[in-house]
Amino acid sequence: MRRLTFPLAMTCLGVMLGAVAVAQVPGLGAPPKAPDVPATLANPRATMRTFLEGMNDADVQSAVTALDLKDVAVIERAERGPQMAFRLWAVLNRQKFIQLEEVPDSPGSTPFAVQITDLQGGQVGTVRIDKGADGAYRFTAGTLSNLGRLWEGVRDKPVVPGLLDPSLRQFDPAEWFASKMPPATQELTLGVAQWKWLLLAIILFLGAVAGGTVRLVAQFLAGRIFKLKRKDTAYREIERGGAAVSLIIWSWLVARTYTFLGLPGLLSGTIGFVALVGEVWGCVRLAMAVWDSCLQIYARREEHRTGKPDGLVIPVLTRLGNATILIVAALSVMSFFGVNVTGFVATLGLGGLVLALAAKDSVENLFGSVVVLVEKPFKLGDWIKIGDVSGEVEDIRLRSTRIRTFEDSVIVMPNSALVSKSLENFGMRRYRRLKTTIGVPYDTHPAKIDEFTHRIREMLYEHPHVWNDKRFVYLNDFGASALEIQLLCYLIAPTGQLEFEYRNDLLLKIVKIADEIGVHFAFPTQTLYVKDEGGKDTLFPPSSDAAVTTE
After folding, report:
1. C-alpha to C-alpha distance for 169 and 91, rounded to whole angstroms
2. Is the pLDDT assigned to residue 487 strictly greater than 50?
3. 193-217 pLDDT, tens per residue?
4. Secondary structure of 243-260 in HEC code, one letter for each residue
5. 45: confidence class by pLDDT, cuts 50, 70, 90
6. From CA 524, how far away is CA 180, in angstroms rounded?
7. Are 197 and 188 in contact (CB under 8 A)?
8. Residue 489: closest CA among 460, 456, 454, 459
9. pLDDT tens-digit profile of 128-142?
10. How does 58-81 read in b/e, with b if 16+ C-beta sit within 10 Å?
11. 3-state secondary structure of 3
12. Under DSSP, is residue 279 helix (H, G, I), strand (E, B) or coil?
């Protein structure tokens, strides 16, 4: 148990971190309840104050909370939310100075609207604040979707005296970039301006260069600094970590820059989704590489201390840690996309008993994995027997153990069988018994038999792979066809392969001893005695060779 303290502590830490991450996912870990309306969005006046104070105080994220972004793709809200806030601010600052006293402050207020007019006083549209399904007041999704037309109608109007004018780069970076580009690049290719394609290619290239540089640095550290070879596990883990960081850097750079190009919705959404998947998968691979590296450090330390490689703890903890990382990543992605898992958690609470019964086998299998991890009844490569199944342990997983039988077939044994059935581990035998009977003909001289058994005992004493505490070679019985010499000894053979090799060596030496002494090995024969009319016994057929006689 002491040897398991380090990896089990790491596993428990990983589970706790996973639990903390799960607790951060909206709707997980708490029963569903009515949404609480923040005081900053409790009525139209509070919403307008939150927005204007956030923009004037450069607290854009606070101002974004006053926008209803339900029609904006989740993956684009982090970038488009501030852009929409700046554009809305620019529209309002060209229309009028908002007097908060004119905005209603009752929770049950009707929608508040600001009419937007162009330079000639013509009607352009309306900016509305209305109550949402969650009870909070926000600038409506319709207002946000119409911001482009509203801005085109007021962009030529001067800003109201005393108010600030946001930069075009803050709310429409694509237009700002376009104003800086040569006219020749404004032509469309596949519906997108050529300068956008050019900048997109530059972004992808720079991301690839940055990521590739990190990967080369990782390989340099592994090969030149740590003096590792490509076949070394540590080298592969460092290289895998470098590749993960490379993917994270590339995805992060793309995700933080592509939105400034103002690409069409489908293309923009596709690039954003790919960038998000790249970031998440890179983080998952990096976490797995770090986890596996820690386990490899532990394995090397244990092998140095015990002189034996670990064939059990590392495979189980590797899969357990990787499964935890994947679950946390999946929940994080679900949370990012705004998936409402509250109903799912409520279903778990109401149908917990049914789910527990349905998952009974899975729980038992997982418990069996824990038993294997803690008690270590076997390791990879051991010859075990569970019930009627006998073979070599080939792989250990969270749900099952793969056993390669001696017929070369594979049996997948649920880990629950490790708890419910007796398990016999032949691989943990300190010694392997060799028991055999040597038959010699009945007409063998007793002196030869004595010399034969004595020579075999001496040979066993001198053999380096025979346990000296128990060696028995004696004439044991009168068999039906031979005098039976019983041989019993124990081989010091840690594996089945070595057992067969040592048995072969011992039996060959016994054959050589018999040949040197002149002792023959008996085989089942019969001699028939026939009485003639005079009562004389006649041997039929005549035989001068040693044989077993039956009357």
Report:
1. 15
2. yes
3. 777 778 778 878 887 888 788 878 8
4. HHHHHHHHHHHHHHHHHH
5. very high
6. 105
7. no
8. 460
9. 999 998 889 999 999
10. eebebbbbbbbbeebeebbbebbb
11. helix
12. helix
Burial 445-480 (b: 16+ CB within 10 A, else e): eeeebebbbebbbebbeebebbbeeebebebbeeee
Say what angle helices 360-375 and 313-336 make with each other, to 10 degrees. Answer: 140
Give the single-character DSSP code of 100.
G
Percent of the chain with pLDDT over 90: 25
- 407-461 tens-digit pLDDT: 889 988 888 777 778 888 877 777 888 999 999 999 899 999 999 999 999 999 9
The strand order across the sheet containing 112-117 reads 112-117, 123-131, 137-139
C-beta separation of 492 from 482 below 8 A: no
Measured between alpha carbons, how far is 88 from 153 in angstroms, rounded to an integer? 13
Give 171-187 as a 3 state SS string: HCHHHHHHHHCCHHHHC
Q: What type of residue is 17?
A: L
Q: What is the mean pLDDT of the chain?
A: 78
Q: 């002149």: which residue's tokens? A: 518
- The Cα 318–Cα 397 span in angstroms is 10
Q: Which two tokens stand for residue 9?
A: 């502590």
Using alpha carbons, select from 151, 208, 141 the residue that is nearest to residue 174: 151
Question: Cα–Cα distance between 482 and 440 in angstroms, integer?
Answer: 5
Q: What is the DSSP string of 185-233?
A: GGSEETTEEHHHHHHHHHHHHHHHHHHHHHHHHHHHIIIIIS---TTSH
* DSSP calls for 43-97: SHHHHHHHHHHHHHTT-HHHHHTTB--TTS-GGGHHHHHHHHHHHHHHHHHTT--
Q: Which two tokens stand for residue 12?
A: 């428990």
Q: Is the peptide bond before 107 cis (omega within 30 degrees of 0)?
A: no
Euclidean distance between the first and final Cα of the chain, in Å? 65
What is the torsion angle, in degrees rounded to the nearest 10, for the CA atoms of residue 194, residue 197, residue 200 and residue 205? -110
Return the H-helix or E-strand segment holding 397: none
For CA atoms 171, 175, 176, 177, give the dihedral sign: positive
Query: Is the distance from CB of 93 to CB of 116 less than 8 angstroms?
Result: no
Question: How is residue 551 annotated by DSSP?
Answer: -
